[in-house]
């Protein structure tokens, strides 16, 4: 079984971190591949970022679907679940958002849960998702740490202390379970569970578990009505199409256990936020991978 984990921001360090968390809970027969766009939003912290993220999700999943070895399931590794409905239109395989999976599993683990997320400006989207997933009675609190997403690439002790404090406050206020509201918090789950004394759910692990269970059950995405194939092909923010037979998504940085490093095809991952990628033909199947210089935040991960 192969699961493709899509991180909609351009941080390769965070993509590697999320992939490690996913592999920690995946079964031995589950191969985890992780990709992020080479250009787009550096972090998903606004509605504008979310538009770029949704476009990246659609492009990356469509390219994987049309490649030589399509995934058996897809996980959208951003707590806003950007592009989730559009992605489900594209494939028969399961597509799972980490917020959706985390909230559902939290409601099974306890009667009430609280969400601890990043910036306060993202709380509106979190409330929207609580309502969409029918969790208004189960979710008893939403709290913002004030920690920017990219600060979670390397989780410092100060950040952990802030997340722990707000998680403890949520538990004291009636939450039986804590939901971590950012994929960048994926590596903190076990530590926070021990510190806070209630179950802490990481959406990446929840989504991987849900996706792999759906594959084993033979349960995919319904193609009746809403999630039927779209009537028109998606042009895309970058118009980067899939390369027939290629194993790497054009214009994407990819991380896998087998490769052990980041590969990017077509464009630089160090472009400014929201900048359009340069033109040019995509690489063909036999084109060599391009190893990019690490970003400042990537040095420790990929040194």
Write structural notes for this entry.
This protein has 303 residues and is an alpha/beta fold. The protein folds into 2 domains: 190 residues, no CATH class; 104 residues, Rossmann fold. 35% of the residues lie in helices and 15% in strands. The radius of gyration is 18 Å and the shape is globular.
Q: How do the strands line up in the largest sheet?
A: 4-3-1-2-9-10
The pLDDT mean sits at 82
Low-confidence spans: pLDDT under 50, at least 5 residues? Answer: 239-251, 256-303
- Helix proportion of residues, in percent? 25-40%
Which class do the helix and strand fractions yield? alpha/beta
Total number of helical segments? Answer: 9
- The SSE string, one letter per element, is EHEHEHEHEHEHEHEHEEH
Ends: how far apart? 30 Å
Rounded to an integer, what's the Rg over CA atoms? 18 Å
> Strand count, sense and closure of the main sheet?
6 strands, mixed
Number of domains as seen in the coordinates: 2
Shape: globular
Counting DSSP E segments of at least 2 residues, the number of strands comes to: 10
Instruction: Kindly estimate the percentage of residues that lie in beta strands according to DSSP.
Output: 5-15%
Keywords:
303 residues, alpha/beta, Rossmann fold, six-stranded mixed sheet, four-stranded parallel sheet, 9 helices, 10 strands, disordered C terminus
Task: Please describe the topology of this protein.
Elements: E1 2-6, H1 12-25, E2 31-37, H2 47-65, E3 73-76, H3 84-90, E4 95-97, H4 98-109, E5 113-117, H5 123-132, E6 139-144, H6 157-172, E7 177-181, H7 189-196, E8 200-202, H8 203-217, E9 252-256, E10 263-264, H9 299-302
Parallel strand pairs: 1-2, 1-3, 3-4, 5-6, 5-7, 7-8
Antiparallel strand pairs: 2-9, 9-10
């Amino acid at each position: 079984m192969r699961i493709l984990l899509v991180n909609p921001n351009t941080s390769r360090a965070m993509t590697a971190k999320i992939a490690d968390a996913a592999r920690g809970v995946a079964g031995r027969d589950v191969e985890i591949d992780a990709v992020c766009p080479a250009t787009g939003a550096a972090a998903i912290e606004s509605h504008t970022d979310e538009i770029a993220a949704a476009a990246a999700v659609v492009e990356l999943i469509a390219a994987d679907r049309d490649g030589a070895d399509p995934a058996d399931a897809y996980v959208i590794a951003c707590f806003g679940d950007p592009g989730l409905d559009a992605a489900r239109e594209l494939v028969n395989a399961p597509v799972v958002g980490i917020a959706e999976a985390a909230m559902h599993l939290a409601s099974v683990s306890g009667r009430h849960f609280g969400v601890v997320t990043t910036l306060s400006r993202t709380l509106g989207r979190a409330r929207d998702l609580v309502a969409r997933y029918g969790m208004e009675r189960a979710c008893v609190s939403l709290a913002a740490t004030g920690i920017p997403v990219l600060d979670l690439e390397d989780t410092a002790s100060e950040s952990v202390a802030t997340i722990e404090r707000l998680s403890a406050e949520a538990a004291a206020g009636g939450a039986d379970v804590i939901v971590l509201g950012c994929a960048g918090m994926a590596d903190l789950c076990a530590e926070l569970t021990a510190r806070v004394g209630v179950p802490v759910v990481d959406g990446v692990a929840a989504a991987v578990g849900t996706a792999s269970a759906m594959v084993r059950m033979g349960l995919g995405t319904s193609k009746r009505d809403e999630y039927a194939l779209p009537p028109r092909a998606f042009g895309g923010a970058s118009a980067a199409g899939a390369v027939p037979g290629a194993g790497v998504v054009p214009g994407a940085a990819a991380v896998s256990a087998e490769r052990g490093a980041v590969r990017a095809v077509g464009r630089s991952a160090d472009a400014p936020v929201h900048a359009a990628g340069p033109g040019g033909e995509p690489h063909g199947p036999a084109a060599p991978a391009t190893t990019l210089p690490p970003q400042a935040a990537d040095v420790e991960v990929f040194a």
